């Protein structure tokens, strides 16, 4: 079987305060997203999001069901968002062939039966995905950067000049609860999502890439008055519970993909925290 999904359980914020570095990494870090000729992922009890990667090298990979779902097909009761962080590739979706370019996104709705990912002929196939429970079906939709809602924020003076590409959000495409996008930091900028915030109505996952070899990102999490940090490398991801801030600073600029699932799909629904209030 070419798909492997492990399970992570939820953590209480009071328990989190006592976690040592090893325990934080074991519970929230997704260490290896891309494994050759495998679909890998983590099923988190935080809004039951699945976070993972698809890396066909010399064979095609089918999106097969997993034990955690108790379903005949992976998407019987789920939706999935895929963002290509590698070379242009093709994906078969119930007989329709979709070509997905670098940093383009694909939304697949509830009820799709057969999804097959093919190796690229132009380089590495690296597809990052988030999947959330779905209550209705929406059409397959490819979203390019030209289709995205684009916002530029921050400044070089504050080391956070960045462009946000809202790819799979409700202002661009219909989804049940999944929201995904991509943020590119400009050269000379390293801070993301500052000022920090929480949103009790949904959790989030961060995936870091475009991080040059030898560099790292220090990701900050925890309640605003009780924060912790964890160091991530290129092609690693972090689970961020609804009670946790999610912010980071790297030793160089980088790109990250944010994905959300939960009760509220309003991108602006967040509880901001002033930098001076963080502890």
UniProtKB/TrEMBL annotation:
Pathway: Glycan metabolism; pectin degradation; 2-dehydro-3-deoxy-D-gluconate from pectin: step 4/5. Keywords: Isomerase, Metal-binding, Zinc. Zn(2+) binds at residues 197, 199, 204, 246. Gene3D superfamilies: Jelly Rolls, pectin degrading enzyme 5-keto 4- deoxyuronate isomerase, domain 1. One of its GO terms (molecular function) is 4-deoxy-L-threo-5-hexosulose-uronate ketol-isomerase activity. It catalyses: 5-dehydro-4-deoxy-D-glucuronate = 3-deoxy-D-glycero-2,5-hexodiulosonate. Belongs to the KduI family. Catalyzes the isomerization of 5-dehydro-4-deoxy-D-glucuronate to 3-deoxy-D-glycero-2,5-hexodiulosonate. This is 4-deoxy-L-threo-5-hexosulose-uronate ketol-isomerase. It comes from Algoriphagus aquimarinus.
């Amino acid at each position: 079987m070419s798909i492997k999904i492990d399970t992570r359980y939820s953590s209480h914020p009071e328990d989190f305060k006592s976690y040592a570095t090893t325990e934080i990494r074991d519970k929230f870090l997704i260490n290896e997203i891309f494994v050759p000729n495998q679909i890998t992922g983590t099923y988190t009890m935080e809004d039951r999001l699945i976070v993972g990667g698809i890396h066909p090298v010399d064979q095609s990979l089918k999106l097969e069901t997993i034990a955690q779902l108790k379903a005949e097909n992976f998407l019987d009761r789920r939706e999935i968002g895929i963002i290509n962080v590698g070379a242009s590739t093709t994906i078969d979706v119930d007989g329709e062939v979709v070509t997905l370019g670098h940093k383009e996104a694909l939304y697949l709705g509830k009820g799709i039966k057969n999804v097959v990912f093919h190796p690229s002929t132009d380089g590495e196939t690296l597809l990052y995905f988030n999947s959330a429970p779905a209550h209705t079906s929406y059409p397959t939709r490819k979203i390019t950067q030209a289709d995205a809602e684009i916002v530029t924020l921050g400044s070089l003076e504050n080391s956070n000049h960045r462009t946000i590409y809202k790819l799979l959000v409700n202002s661009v495409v219909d989804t049940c609860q999944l929201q995904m996008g991509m943020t590119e930091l400009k050269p000379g900028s390293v801070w993301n999502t500052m000022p920090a915030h929480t949103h009790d109505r949904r959790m989030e996952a961060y995936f870091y890439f475009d991080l040059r070899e030898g560099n790292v990102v220090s990701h900050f999490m925890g309640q605003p008055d009780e924060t912790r940090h964890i160091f991530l490398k290129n092609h690693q991801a972090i689970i961020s519970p609804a009670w946790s801030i999610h912010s980071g600073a790297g030793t160089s600029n980088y790109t990250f993909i944010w994905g959300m699932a939960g009760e509220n799909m309003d991108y602006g629904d967040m509880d901001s925290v002033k930098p001076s209030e963080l502890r």
